[in-house]
Design a protein that fits this description.
Blueprint: H1 7-12, E1 16-19, E2 24-27, E3 33-35, H2 38-45, H3 61-93, H4 96-99, H5 104-141, H6 152-163, H7 173-202, E4 204-212, E5 218-226, E6 229-237, H8 245-259, E7 265-270, H9 274-286, E8 291-294, H10 296-310, H11 312-330, H12 332-341, H13 356-367, H14 369-376, H15 379-382, H16 390-400, H17 402-425
Parallel strand pairs: 4-7, 7-8
Antiparallel strand pairs: 1-2, 2-3, 4-5, 5-6
Helix pairs in contact: 8-9, 10-11, 10-17, 11-12, 11-13, 11-16, 11-17, 13-17
């Protein structure tokens, strides 16, 4: 018998691929891997939240619309199927005695089967609720962020436990910090060795940039990337050191000689600071087979930063959007009210490491314009004590200001293409082909 993939699932496979022989699926746009079914990938591509899968940040608009269409079509089919089943059941009931003469024993058997099925379903539901509450208590008691539940590792762990026999007992803390930790280290070492061995055939790209830790101390790191993946090579603090071109060249060459070997390097990528640019020329002179390129993500991020700094309308509009976000997420009751009107959709929060996230935050607010306008006009909003403060009244005024929404839509229309390209080039793997 020939196995046929359902039509809609077959179409979704055109935009993702299976990773190895396991149950992981990789998105062709954002390059992220998920331990999920192909059906759930529809929600990933459609940017639908609340389906236990991260939304795609790099999917083209046409593919997003296509995925949403498949979801809506599946929903309509489900409703139609349930309606037909109900109609079929009610229609056949009046003809049962005419078509089939069931004995009392058969009827009793069927009634008993239905009753047992209902009891089993109820028991399974209660057991799931108890398991869900146990996981919830674990998250709260150990101060674990709720979005960890979206982690593929968490999903895989739960799946592995459910596949085990009912008597499964978790490992002790001693086992976790000794044997299992060593096993995981061996697995990681093997993974890194596979990547390093691939450099002999394909070469690798060296990447270097600076960063600050939680104590605000400056560091510089070195990574190597190839078709097999990216690995961390080394890092050192730059506190008290002059980070000129000579220092950068010495650090990069030392890392290459210790971990990679010069003949395995084909390209070096760094940010656009003047010291890195000069270091790139020196490295190209010392290794003629290597070429140096600037980080595309850093270039685009600098462009966005210049736009915000130089254009007053952009700066003011983003500042107002940040005020809306900060006020709503500051108070629990205000946040609950927003989620009620937005159907649990969240406002994206800007991160400190990427300036583009300011525009993503603004875009998320603009997309919820109608819901936010209804919210500030509702009795529920007016009844909140926080909305009657100076800050609350200012936020209400911004949301009711037509000019804010007009400026926001104009800014997003201009900036969205830049942000989209930035998110594509900043994702894992070779992304130039998607630009």
């Amino acid at each position: 018998m020939e196995f046929k993939i359902p039509r809609d699932k077959g179409k979704i496979w055109e935009h993702c691929e299976r990773v190895g022989t396991g149950n992981k699926i990789k998105c062709k746009y954002c390059k992220e891997e998920f331990a999920c079914s192909i059906a759930r990938m529809k929600f990933h591509l459609a940017e639908k939240i609340g389906k236990d899968i991260k939304v795609c940040n790099a999917v083209p608009d046409s593919i997003q619309t296509f995925a949403r269409g498949l979801i809506e079509e599946a929903g309509k089919k489900g409703k139609k199927s349930r309606s037909e089943n109900i109609s079929s059941s009610s229609g056949s009931g009046s003809q049962t005695t005419n078509l089939i003469d069931l004995s009392m024993e058969e009827q009793d058997h069927k009634t008993k089967g239905v009753y047992q099925s209902s009891i089993s379903t109820l028991i399974r539901k209660k057991e799931k609720e108890a398991a869900d509450l146990a996981i919830e208590r674990f998250f709260i008691a150990n101060n674990i962020a709720f979005n960890v539940a979206r982690s593929p590792e968490f999903i895989n762990a739960i799946g592995a436990v459910t596949n085990h026999d009912p008597g499964y007992k978790p490992p002790s803390s001693e086992t976790i910090r000794t044997k299992l930790l060593c096993d995981l280290k061996e697995e990681a070492t093997e993974y890194v060795n596979v990547i390093k061995n691939s450099w002999i055939e394909t070469g690798c790209t060296i990447m270097s940039d600076g960063w600050k830790d939680q104590r605000n101390r400056n560091h510089i790191n070195l990574l190597a990337s190839s078709i097999k993946g990216t690995v961390f090579l080394c890092s050192e603090t730059t506190e008290g050191k002059v980070k000129d071109a000579k220092y950068l060249v010495d650090f990069i060459l030392r890392g290459i000689d210790e971990h990679v070997r010069r003949e395995n390097v084909v390209k070096i990528i760094s940010d656009n600071a003047s010291n890195y640019i000069v270091a790139g020329y020196i490295l190209e002179a010392q290794m003629p087979h290597v070429f140096k390129t600037n980080c595309a993500a850093h270039c685009l991020d600098l462009i966005l930063e210049d736009i915000d700094r130089e254009i007053l309308k952009v700066r003011d509009t983003i500042h107002k959007a940040r005020d809306i976000k900060n006020f709503i997420y500051k108070f629990t009751h205000v946040l609950d009210s927003m989620r009620n009107f937005t159907e649990a959709k969240e406002l994206k929060r800007p991160a400190s490491t990427r300036f583009a996230t300011n525009f993503l935050m603004l875009e998320s607010i603009i997309n919820l314009e109608q819901s936010l306008r209804f919210m500030v006009a509702s009795n529920e909003w007016r009844a909140l004590s926080q909305t009657r403060t100076v800050e609350g009244r200012e936020v209400s005024y911004i949301i009711q200001d037509t000019l804010f929404w007009e400026d926001g839509r104009e800014i997003i229309a201009v900036i969205a293409p830049l942000v989209k390209v930035l998110r594509m080039v900043d994702s894992e793997g070779a992304t130039l082909g998607y630009v």
